[in-house]
Write a structure and sequence with these properties.
4 copies of one chain form a homotetramer.
Chain A (H helix, E strand, L loop, with lengths): L8 E5 L12 H13 L4 E4 L11 H14 L4 E4 L5 H14 L3 E4 L8 H15 L5 E5 L1 H4 L5 H10 L3 E6 L5 H12 L7 E4 L9 H4 L3 E4 L4 H12 L3 H18 L5 H11 L17 H15 L8
Parallel strand pairs in A: 1-2, 1-8, 2-3, 3-4, 4-5, 5-6, 6-7, 7-8
């Protein structure tokens, strides 16, 4: 159960639990960590885009890393994307000293050309150190940076310390196929591919060559089961399970309020004590909460985990 | 069955059929027109973003308007968005002379401030003429222009000729609720709201206040049935139907290749003789086609219309 | 005096003259055409971004091409950038039949990756025909598309019909040097480089390797003189002339109102009968006009051409 | 000499001096601070976009604030723009405790609608505290956020703690006139307007109503003299001085390498011991340095301060 180019399964994108007054809820962090491990997750990613990282003081970020690393029996990845390399480096180095398995780096939105993207990651790797294993995050919908398979290949070739691609391009199925074809042809080295985008295409990504998922959908136990079903070649069963959850997966995949939905579900499942976010936050209306609860009830007809 | 502020139901976003050699397939246009009407659509929108309009010569655009208008028993809306008001005006005026019921106008991507957006539509309405009924298209995901409910209210207040909002903001459920609340409070005049985004949230939009859908999903008959079920208050049945189709609705909702999927489905259903697009086009891989066909087969277990 | 990879000097970016009622002022087109030729311009570019092309009906565009081509004793380039290849092709083919020397093509703002840019121009060249000589426009400030020297090299290598780069990247001096170094090293074929950006860096671009300018500053006669001074190695004199005009060059280089300033100056110089623009237009305030006139008066102390 | 709504003159945008090995050069910070004060600056702004702030560790930022505040005899403004309110608040509170006069806040690039902008600053002011005086930075060219006069008026009305607008919209002369007209009409409260954009329009901004400049051009002594000349109504002399410097002001106004030019000039003037930047940095080529030196030599014919 290590973080390397052969990592498989589900890495949970962890939310950061807060009390209603905005202070960090370490008790919920513990429960959440246990919940992910007991759900079968093979890794946990903290302080990512959905982890409200920019709302945390540096000391708070370190405290959260320490708490999760000390408790989790699986590799912990720390999101270290930052507007400057100084903050990226210090969080990365400190996280590794604390015991994190690696870090995740996303490109800043201003990058445009292929060379700009490749050069940025060269700078980032120099900043965090070539000895730090890391995940390349490819998320154009939010970051507006589009990386072709060729650009990803250049980054992977330049940096042996990169272990994994967090793939959440959209549309992105052909990109997974293309990268795997390049590897099969021997023109690209091996690395793990875990898919994000809230799991919205996880009914086809494993067959395209993905090793699993890295996302924060409120049912990581279902995601693990789904990846196992595909690994076992039980395609129709996998789709049955996926389709039962798709209405909620789709509903959660709304930029801005997605995090509120995710925290609401985790609270309903008894993992978080509060669904509070730090400001600025987009909150769920009463109508939206009722819609989520209706979807949960519908899922529960097929999957009892949703009977909350 | 008129196009006005009380329009309801499903307006089909029509694809433009081509032969494999790139010439316009008027036979398929006729079949597609009939198919939409027989499916229960209350309107047809042509030459929109999914209608490959920029790939058409002006003469071709007029010929298509003429063909559809002369055949359809329902109102026909013509997309007239253009980088300049000259082209917008001439297509709008000619379409109305031919017999179109109205036009649809989207904001150009460069607009930023609220005032820029409001002023743009003032110029557009002056260009096409205040006598031309029109649809305001609100589609930030592709157009990058974000219109608040307040901006929409200003546009609606300034221009009585606007009959309808094509709502495809994302996330967008709260926006529908907000606009309807403003109307209920008497601070906003009435207009029709039909939702786009490929129908991805059509399981909740009617309850939020939408009058139906304006989208091009390959099963307009299903969309019509869905809207009718909601109108009849048969919520659970509506969700059952929607959920059966959601895997394909979601799959089709991939920017760039969505049109290829849509044409493939319409060809499989026997409506189009070819799924050809004019260049530039993104094509479906064999794997993608097989995935679509697998999804069709799964839908067909619940809805025989998908047994193609 | 042909349009090819060895073109030098100044290609004027022509405005499109209108009467106050918005109709095309063909008399002013004739005067403007004569003015450019008499100023020493080696070419004229019409229907570009500053030519209000999107505000013209297709028939109007053809009429303007015909008028300028029939009168000018120098090569005429026609801007054919369009949201779709159909309109681009028809305007390009018709312009060439009328007698244009070539066309100019800019990338659409949505392009992001290097491959997307390269593929776009492949499609554009296929659309207009490989026999049509063309200018590649590189203008990131307005178009948001950033082309590295490597991308430009790929496009030039793929398309022998491209004769010229209209260079208006910003900052861009190093890019000119880099492209010329690649050509000197034999890794890039020859092509002409004319610089835009209103001439804002024309005091250094010739020494970096540019062949001249393609811009619409209201003193094309000065631009021609400037390029000649550099060609004659009279550097200090060139800078003296440039610096006298720089306050106005800089003032004109304001996105949005730059065209209004340019038309105002051309009217003051007696070339245009009106400074009218078609809508949507940004107009000069009385204060702004007074500022321009003050700058003209200051230039006139050194250059009598500005004594208008 | 306080920082409030009546502040006038020149606030220098300070670079952050580094040694060649990347460590902070506190000796140069002292010299730079003295240089600004002796040049006549009425304020100093540190850790702004041109201050390489994202490349600093939090401890380094505090050390720089402490150094400048303890030495400067003028108000010191600290740039606190950050992707999250947590980092913004802690830097703002600590800077004020150290003795800063206020902070400067820019909007993050993702903001689009008027309401999003207004709400963002509401959150920022709540984060830093309503007691902290601040500068609103309006810089669309880099930040892509466009604020209309109406939006600025809403922010100013909501937040009495905002003392100043750093105006660097482009084009922006009409915006200054518009804001001053609103104040004159009594529909907008008073605030100071200092202009940025490297001083590129400082030959007209004072007459439009600006109170001076906030920029980092390497000749702050010239900027102070210029503002004084305008205050004394000596328009032609002001333009003579400005025009002598405009070639360099224009040259420095190149996004990306502008900072390298600025540091090069400050080193040539003997203020900085090194022109080093922390990575990522864009460096000047030998040709570019020679061009800057040539421009300095030309300026020196009129202004001996440039004889370096």
């Amino acid at each position: 159960m290590t973080f390397d180019t052969r990592s498989r399964g589900v890495y949970a994108i962890a939310t950061t639990p807060f009390f209603d007054d905005g202070s960090i809820d370490f008790g919920s962090i513990d429960r959440l960590t246990d919940f992910y491990v007991e759900s079968g997750c093979t890794g946990i990613t903290i302080l990512g885009i959905m982890g409200e990282a920019p709302k945390l003081e540096p000391d708070e970020s370190r405290a959260i890393v320490r708490r999760v690393v000390s408790r989790a029996a699986v590799p912990v990845i720390v999101g270290v994307s930052a507007p400057g390399f100084a903050a990226m480096r210090s969080l990365a180095r400190e996280s590794m000293e604390i015991g994190a398995a690696g870090v995740m780096i996303a490109p800043p939105p201003a990058l445009r050309t292929d060379d700009q993207i490749v050069n940025y990651f060269a700078g980032a790797v120099e900043a965090v150190g070539e000895d730090v294993p890391w995940v390349l995050q490819d998320y154009p919908l939010t970051l507006t940076v589009v990386m072709t398979p060729g650009v990803i290949a250049r980054i992977m070739s330049d940096h042996p310390s990169c272990q994994m691609l967090k793939h959440e391009d959209w549309p992105g199925l052909e990109k997974v196929s293309k990268l795997r074809a390049m590897q099969k042809a021997g023109t690209l080295r091996d690395f793990s591919i875990l898919c994000g985008n809230g799991g919205l295409f996880l009914d086809f990504e494993p067959e395209r060559g993905a090793d699993g998922a890295m996302t924060g959908y409120g049912f990581p136990d279902m995601l693990c089961e789904l990846v196992d079903l595909f690994a076992a070649g039980r395609r129709d069963e996998a789709h049955d399970l996926f389709d039962a959850h798709l209405p909620l997966i789709r509903y959660e995949q709304q930029l801005g309020i997605g995090l509120a939905i995710r925290k609401h579900v985790l609270k309903r499942r008894g993992v978080l004590s509060s669904d509070a976010q730090r400001k600025p936050a987009q909150l769920l209306s009463a109508t939206a909460k009722a819609e989520v609860d209706y979807l949960l009830a519908r899922i529960a007809r097929y999957d009892r985990r949703a009977a909350v």
